[in-house]
Design brief:
The structure holds 3 protein chains of 3 kinds. By secondary structure, chain A is an alpha/beta fold. Helix content of chain A is 64%, strand content 9%. A 4-stranded mixed sheet of chain A has the order 2-1-3-4, with helices on both faces. Classes of the chains: A alpha/beta, B alpha/beta, C alpha/beta.
């Protein structure tokens, strides 16, 4: 009787796949894509809105008004332009996306303040980018509040930010990017591995030989897993050395969960490859179903705890959330295996692998259809 | 000549329609995928989970807490010790923790400086920051400090700060890029893989015509998807405002899809099989999408990237589209976007055209 | 004796294969004992491949197959015998990986079967490589092999693990005569020495004589079986010397032979296995009608010399594919281009077409010197081409494909439809018009590609193995059409083939060997040069046995 899985058979396929990946130069992409995405986004994505372009129309030209203006000038969040345009012209500039905010200081500003009367400041914000608009609104309010309250309020906030003390965007984003690329890149590579053979006809080598389904699946997944495993380390280096993201947790946990996560990504790609009859379908489907959830449910844009309704359910369906939780823990928190939640999430990830591989083995048929 | 051109276009469209799975996937992308993107995310703090430990035992803390309400906050959860609270934050069940010390009530009543301790999960930095701002202003209003200034804030173009339609629109624009590049590239590479390439070369037709017809067919498919998506999702589900002209958007989209098809041509020229198409297009598209400002505003980027972003046609497309939808910029004032897309599109198309034309 | 073999007996009983709406093969039963070679012959699409796929356990079927005392009814149950089987599906280079070299393929297939790489294995591998003539090409990637070489590589990959049950679907299609001889040598050795049961389908009827038993497939059924001699005997009464006197639905003529169900006055002739197909066609009342072709409406002036080239050479890396070839194709001439696999036939034709650039040499097509791609542009509509693996657009039906090709050649739809109908009838692919390209049997695919090449009524045809894998009847019809085209339209044809018997239909034959021209003469003159030759195949072999 033959044993459960035979090493030589798997080796044959692994060697073949590796040779093909090298000859078709796809191996370059295996390493280029994840690093490129991480570096580009790591440098580029800023969640903070800095340098909002604010046009101030100062109708008062007084000491008080210039004090207020200088508060804005000194803030890193604003790039101030003093303008003598009419209100309509300034609004037109927003319409043409040449400015983001218009602040109008009324002519009686100083007079009213001295009299202790209220004066009204007009603020116009470009809300085309809704999130940015809210953030800008908060900043404007913040500056004006701090300018107005000369005496300190009685309750002060004694804030201790956890995990990301400096509130650096890099710390918040780079680990999430790892979760993104390790889901997308391996899936896209595997998505074509089986459907390609179906389209070309080489799948007969599998159909007509005594290779077990399990052997075939392992043989198909192993080369990609091996290649992408190296990315776990490469991405770690980018995160910690290039972006100075702290690493507070267990490296073993990081490595282990990443390997499992890559396996999930591979299994998703493989499942698509098994179901799809045409390569083009497999490509488009993989791109669509991995990139978006990887972004949405990464926790980069929005904490999962803030999600409700459909998005909460969806976030719990996609594996991204579980992996990212562990990922952020290893980088920023460092609870590791002490946290029962992390152990639970790790088990859930393993559950995904088992379920997806099981589905793959179920759908994979050793016969023509 | 004309009929030949349309024969090719027609053949490619038919070929697309024949693959039920492909049609389904494209339909899914233009409808459900965009819906999920719009529905799923809110970058503004919403439903922030707050936990607190109240050692002050008094009414002030309760009053403050009662100010934390939806949509920004979910009802605060009480913890018995700071340790439990920290654990909850570590496990990401709670984002903001408030600790009212023993002497909180006493100090406040004595009108002394009082401290409220805040523990904040700043993993998503911007949300953390905005949450702090909220807290600050809640405290200000709680203490009823009179500011002699009143802010009258007008949000232009999108009064409700409707984030959903914005996210859905962004997703649509990125999706157009991805699909048009991949589909165009595959139309050519499929011929290489299936061995019909030689046959195509031997047809007594100008190579330019073939290339143009094949790209047009994919542009038509994507444009069809765009219209579907606009009708069902963008306008249908999210009530996205349309302050500008619908047709300027369609025109801009057409210019843009054609220029992105140029990228597809380039990918097709360098790729040998569908596998390579998948990899190459992602490597080319991601920087392109990134540099466009779809995910992060251009002027907040690293200065080097800001310069590079001038070369992403998607940048002009996105800015142009936002202007049309929200700002209602009139057709003639949109010229920078049209020119941006057209010039870059022309260059990309010529490069792609030349590159693939060499194989003919 | 019989008892001894009981365990390795192979039974097929009541096997049927059905696809969605059509029956591919129905209710076949036969058996074989160890060491037997069983041939599957029959028209394209008669169900040979489906039966093979069922036996190989790669497609669902009903009925029972048993081997070595184990019976199976589904692909799943067939798993247990796959360790003993070797299967080579139909299609040129289908099971090969483009970027792997010959040697890497052998290693892959050996590992796939978990073979020990001992001295015995290495010797066997060397023998297989030598037999297939691939010894010199071990480091070449599959995508750079010629069609015939791909076939041979696929075959030796299937032989590598010394299967006990070998299932070969048209292994010799596209393989040159010399290699075919060697290949059969090996098959017979395996059958004799290892007791392997070999099921093999073929379109080369000469090979049938090397089989122990032949099953004749027709319309999804096995209609006859026996040794090739028995089958030949069965049609003996219906085969006559050529007689032009009788012409009715009960008789037909092909080449130098007449077939008739009613007695003819001319003398009986020694039948061949090909005759089986003609007689069968008569019995089915499916007469091959005279091909009717009209003179072209706008007769163009065709130059006396259609194609002329001097010193044409092509090199791929260090491999010289074509070396200083001179050739001339005259108006209204059928020129056969023969040679072993990898001799440079396809490369040469692709250079003529402009699919490969010409490294050195001059080429004149239809009186026009070819210097650049532009020179070819207007000639494209005057040239017809059939390639070794002619491909269709997979997601369109045969008819849609043909209409598309017609529209590319600016043929109006009405004319296109009538031409398609004509060729579909003549070449016998009417029933496949609605099928999708990837569902076609290889032979039908070739017929369709011939139609595609003729649709726009070209002045010159370049045909690269148009008849490979095509069944006897369709080939006969095909050559009739070519003859008519030459006669009525005066077109010139350059054709490659591995059916040496087809050489006699050519006005002139050019032989290529290792990229060089070694003969250029009429068939009659070549027979004169080798008086001892029984058939043209012998002449071909003579050239290849000569050293150098």
């Amino acid at each position: 009787m033959k044993s459960f899985v035979r090493f030589s058979v798997i080796k044959a396929f692994v060697l073949k796949e590796l040779t093909e990946l090298v000859r078709t130069k796809l191996i370059i992409m295996v390493y280029m894509m994840p690093s490129m995405v991480t570096i580009l986004f790591g440098y580029g994505i800023a969640m903070d809105v800095t340098h909002s372009r604010i046009s101030i129309i100062d109708n008062d030209n007084s000491k008080y008004s210039s004090e207020l203006i200088s508060k804005f000038s000194h803030s890193k969040y604003f790039d101030v332009t003093l303008t003598h345009e009419s209100e309509a012209e300034a609004l037109e500039a927003i319409k043409k996306a040449q400015s983001d905010i218009v602040l109008i200081i009324p002519s009686s500003f100083e007079k009213n303040l001295l009299k202790g009367q209220k004066s009204e400041l007009g603020v116009f914000i470009d809300a085309a980018f809704a999130n940015r608009a809210s953030t800008m609104q908060n900043y404007v309010q913040g500056v004006i509040q701090s300018a107005a309250t000369t005496s300190a309020p009685m309750i002060t906030l004694n804030t201790r930010t956890l995990f990301n003390q400096a509130m650096r965007d890099e710390d918040a984003i780079v680990p999430g990017l790892i979760g993104l690329v390790l889901l997308v890149a391996p899936a896209i590579l595997t998505a074509l591995l089986i459907v390609k053979e179906k389209e070309k006809g080489t799948i007969f080598n599998f159909y007509a030989s005594p290779i077990g389904k399990l052997e075939f699946l392992i043989a198909k997944l192993l080369p990609v897993l091996m290649l992408h495993s190296l990315n776990i380390f490469i991405l770690f280096i980018w995160a910690t050395y290039l972006f100075d993201v702290p690493f507070r947790g267990s490296f073993f946990l990081y490595w282990l969960s990443s390997e499992i996560y890559i396996l999930i990504s591979l299994s998703i790609g493989m499942l698509i490859s098994i179901i799809a009859k045409r390569q083009i379908v497999a490509v488009v489907l993989t791109v669509i179903i991995t990139i978006l959830p990887a972004f949405l449910y990464s926790g980069m844009l929005m904490p999962i705890s803030s999600m409700q309704g459909i998005s909460w359910v969806e976030a719990h369906i996609f594996p991204v959330m579980y992996y990212n939780h562990i990922l952020y823990d290893t980088f920023l928190i460092g609870q590791g295996f002490d946290s029962p939640k992390i152990v639970l999430y790790l088990c859930i990830l393993i559950g995904y692998v088992v379920a997806l591989l099981g589905l793959g083995a179920l759908f994979l048929k050793k016969e023509m259809r | 000549m004309k009929s030949l051109f349309f024969a090719i276009v027609f053949k490619e469209l038919k070929s697309f329609m024949r693959s039920a799975a492909l049609v389904a996937v494209v339909l899914y992308s233009f409808t459900i995928d965009i819906y999920v993107a719009g529905e799923g995310i809110d970058i503004e703090p919403r439903n922030v989970a707050v936990g607190y430990v109240d050692n002050s035992g008094g009414g002030i803390s309760k009053k403050i807490l009662s100010n934390l309400h939806s949509p920004e906050f979910v009802a605060p959860v009480q913890f018995l010790s700071q340790k439990e609270l920290s654990n909850a934050i570590y496990n990401k069940e709670i984002m903001v923790g408030l600790v009212f010390d023993n002497d909180f009530e006493k100090l406040y009543r004595e009108k002394k400086n009082t401290q409220l301790n805040v523990l904040l999960d700043a993993t998503s930095a911007s949300q953390g920051f905005t949450t702090l701002m909220y807290l600050q202003s809640i405290l200000l209003s709680f203490e009823d400090i009179q500011i002699p200034l009143e802010l009258k804030i007008h949000k232009l173009f999108n009064q409700n700060s409707d984030n959903k339609s914005f996210m859905a629109l962004s997703e649509l624009l990125s999706l157009i890029t991805m699909l048009v590049v991949i589909l165009t590239a595959i139309v050519f590479v499929k011929e290489k893989e299936d061995g019909t390439w030689d046959i195509m070369l031997l047809m007594p037709i100008d190579a330019k015509l073939t290339i143009l017809a094949k790209t047009l067919s994919q542009v038509i498919i994507v444009m069809g998807g765009v219209i579907l998506s606009l009708g069902f999702v963008i306008f249908g589900m999210f009530d996205t405002p349309m302050n500008g002209s619908f047709w300027s958007f369609i025109f801009l989209t057409f210019l843009y899809t054609f220029s992105s098809a140029g990228i597809g041509l380039f990918v097709a020229a360098i790729a040998k099989d569908v596998m390579q198409v998948a990899q190459f297009s992602i490597v080319i598209m991601i920087p392109l999408i990134f540099l466009s400002g779809a995910w992060t505003p251009v002027y907040t980027m690293h200065p080097f990237f800001q310069v590079l972003s001038f070369f992403s046609p998607l940048r002009y497309y996105i800015e142009g589209s936002e202007s049309i939808f929200y700002r209602g910029t009139p057709f003639l004032d949109l010229y920078p976007y049209y020119f941006g897309v057209m010039i870059l599109g022309f260059i990309l198309y010529i490069i792609g055209f030349k590159k693939i034309g060499r194989l003919f | 004796m019989a008892d001894l073999h009981l365990m390795d007996a192979f039974h097929v009983s009541g096997v049927s294969v059905r696809y969605k709406d059509k029956t591919a093969i129905s209710d076949v039963s036969f058996e074989a004992t160890s060491g037997e070679i069983i041939g599957f012959i029959g028209a394209d699409g008669a169900g040979k491949s489906s039966l093979m796929q069922a036996i190989a356990g790669v497609v669902r079927f009903s009925g029972e197959i048993s081997y070595l005392g184990q019976s199976y009814h589904s692909p799943k149950e067939a798993e247990k015998i796959k360790i003993h089987t070797g299967f080579m599906p139909q299609g040129i280079g289908l099971v090969l990986y483009d970027t792997l070299t010959v040697d890497e393929h052998l290693r892959f297939f050996a590992d796939l079967r978990d073979l020990k790489k001992d001295a015995e294995f290495l010797a066997y591998k060397k023998q297989l490589l030598h037999m297939s003539g691939l010894s010199e090409f071990v480091d070449r990637q599959a995508m750079n092999l010629s069609g015939g070489m791909m076939q041979k590589l696929s075959l030796i990959c299937a032989l590598l693990h010394r299967p006990k049950l070998l299932i070969l679907d048209e292994p010799t299609t596209g393989v040159d005569p010399l290699s075919r001889l060697e290949l059969w040598e090996i098959l017979r050795n395996i059958a004799k020495e290892e007791g392997t049961i070999i099921l093999v389908s073929t379109a080369y009827m000469q090979e049938a004589s090397k089989m122990d038993r032949v099953l004749l497939f027709h319309n999804s059924k096995v209609i006859a079986s026996g040794t090739s001699a028995e089958l030949i005997d069965s049609i003996r009464p219906f085969v006559y010397e050529k007689s032009l006197l009788y012409k009715d639905e009960n008789s037909l003529n092909f080449d130098e032979t007449s077939y008739s169900l009613t007695p003819l006055q001319s003398a009986l002739k020694e039948p061949t296995l090909e005759g089986l197909f003609f007689v069968n066609a008569l019995k089915e009342n499916k007469n091959i009608a005279e091909f009717v072709i009209n003179k072209k409406e706008n007769d163009e002036v065709i130059p006396e010399v259609v194609m002329e080239c001097h010193g044409v050479s092509k090199q791929f890396g260090s491999f010289i594919a074509n070396k200083e070839i001179d050739m001339k194709l005259k108006k209204g001439e059928i020129l056969g281009l023969l040679g072993a696999n990898g001799a440079g036939k396809t490369t040469f034709i692709k250079m003529l077409l402009g699919l490969y650039s010409i490294d050195e040499g001059e080429l004149t097509l239809l009186g026009k010197p070819i210097k650049s791609g532009k020179d070819r542009q207007e000639l494209k509509s005057k040239i017809g081409y059939v390639s070794q693996h002619f491909a269709l657009y997979k997601d369109m039906s045969v008819k849609e494909n043909l209409l598309y090709f017609a529209s590319m050649h600016r043929i109006d739809k009405k004319a296109a439809l009538s031409r398609i109908a004509l060729y579909a009838k003549e070449l016998g692919f009417e029933e496949y018009l609605g099928s999708f390209a990837n569902e076609l049997p290889l032979g039908v695919n070739q017929r369709f590609s011939i139609a595609a090449a003729l649709l726009h009524e070209p002045l010159v045809l370049f045909l690269d193995e148009p008849t490979s894998g095509v069944d006897t009847l369709a080939r006969a019809q095909f050559w009739q059409i070519l003859g008519k085209l030459k006669e009525i339209w005066g077109i010139s044809i350059l054709i490659t083939t591995h059916y040496m018997s087809e050489a006699q239909f050519c006005d002139r034959v050019v032989l290529l060997k290792n990229g060089q021209k070694v003969a250029d003469d009429t068939v009659i003159n070549l027979y004169k040069r080798f008086p001892q030759a029984q058939s043209f195949e012998d002449i071909f072999l003579e050239f290849y046995k000569e050293k150098g």
